[in-house]
Automatic annotation (TrEMBL):
Keywords: Hydrolase, Metal-binding, Zinc. It comes from Pontixanthobacter gangjinensis. GO terms for molecular function: hydrolase activity, acting on ester bonds; metallocarboxypeptidase activity; zinc ion binding. GO terms for biological process: proteolysis. SUPFAM superfamilies: Zn-dependent exopeptidases (SSF53187). CDD domains: M14_REP34-like. Belongs to the peptidase M14 family. This is DUF2817 domain-containing protein. Gene3D superfamilies: Zn peptidases. Residues 30-304 form the Peptidase M14 domain. Its cofactor is Zn(2+).
Length: 304
């Protein structure tokens, strides 16, 4: 097998087949444990929230239960809110921020919203600190009908089980140095395309939905998070990760076109957070705090 020049798996210009996916999968090792880091914290919250097992993954004999936590009792008069973390399993503060919010701030919204939180959507990838799932699928590009990503179909079924619409969905993510050192090269190799290096922004930013833009909502979140950690500046082209900066720390993607997690509720208010944990000016606790602050600011805006 020939080295592509930028990634050690696959042949230049040729999309991966099953043999390349198998080789990639064999290169992924467990670096942390979902059942040690995440599940015990979910179990500890069971006295305060209803624990919902909304799916089960079985990847070559490795089994993972998919959990969500729901505020009870359900009140049909209150707005429905969804918080998701760990859609990309390697993005640690998405998972830890969702759990920290449940542990420290969620009680502030009792009687104000019907809260549903899925803290770790992709546990296989969480354990391997990877962007993709077992089948080398980017989960955050796979939320569509007929998706082969089991993480996506399970979460979409959970959302569909709610008869009342959602008002808010905040999806917690990170942009890391490994996006350029590993994941974008892997993507180019997988798809048989050239790898074009990009620039990792230093700081927190948000991705709005270009098909349902909410500029004041995003401005409010950025102002709140700026008190916790620094906001990513635009590059020399006035962009962040190749997208025009619409206001400080805010860019847009078409959620539904890209089959992103943020599209699944069709909520009025949707946002995707992006924290930069590799910054010399941020700590892991700051990154978690930025996620919690973003959730609270989004809730305050949407509820009020």
């Amino acid at each position: 097998m020939n080295n592509t020049g930028f990634y050690p798996i696959g042949n230049a210009g040729e999309p991966w087949g099953e043999s390349e996916r198998t080789q990639w999968r064999a290169s992924q090792s467990v670096q942390r444990r979902y059942d040690e880091d995440v599940v015990p914290r979910i179990e500890a919250l069971s006295g305060r929230f209803e624990t919902v097992t909304y799916g089960n993954l079985d990847y070559a004999g490795e089994e993972y239960a998919l959990y969500a936590l729901r505020a009870a009792p359900y009140d049909p008069e209150l707005p429905n809110v969804l918080v998701t973390g760990g859609v990309h399993g390697y993005e640690t503060s998405g998972v830890m921020g969702a759990l920290e919010f449940l542990e420290t701030k969620a009680s502030d919204y009792a009687g104000k919203v019907n809260l549903l939180v899925a803290p770790c959507v992709s546990p296989w990838a969480y354990e391997r600190v990877n962007r993709w799932n077992y089948d080398a699928i980017d989960v955050n590009r796979s939320f569509f009908e007929g998706s082969s990503a089991l993480e996506c179909t399970a979460l979409m079924a959970l959302v569909s089980s709610h008869s009342d619409p959602f008002v808010l969905h905040i999806d917690l993510h990170e942009t890391t140095d490994s996006d350029e050192s590993e994941f974008r090269p892997a993507l180019a190799a997988r798809d048989g395309e050239p790898y074009e290096p990009g620039i990792i922004p230093d700081g927190f930013y948000l991705v709005d939905d270009s098909e349902n833009p909410q500029p004041e909502f995003h401005k409010t979140i950025i102002e709140a998070v700026a008190k916790v950690t620094h906001i990513a500046p635009a590059d020399e082209e006035g962009q962040i990760i190749g997208s025009a900066v619409l206001s400080p720390g805010v860019i847009e993607y078409p959620y539904a076109k890209y089959s992103m997690c943020g599209s699944i509720t069709k909520a009025r208010f949707t946002t995707t957070t992006e924290v930069y944990p590799d910054s010399p000016n941020a700590t892991a606790s700051q990154c978690n705090a930025a996620q919690v602050t973003a959730i609270c600011a989004a809730l305050d805006y949407a509820v009020n």
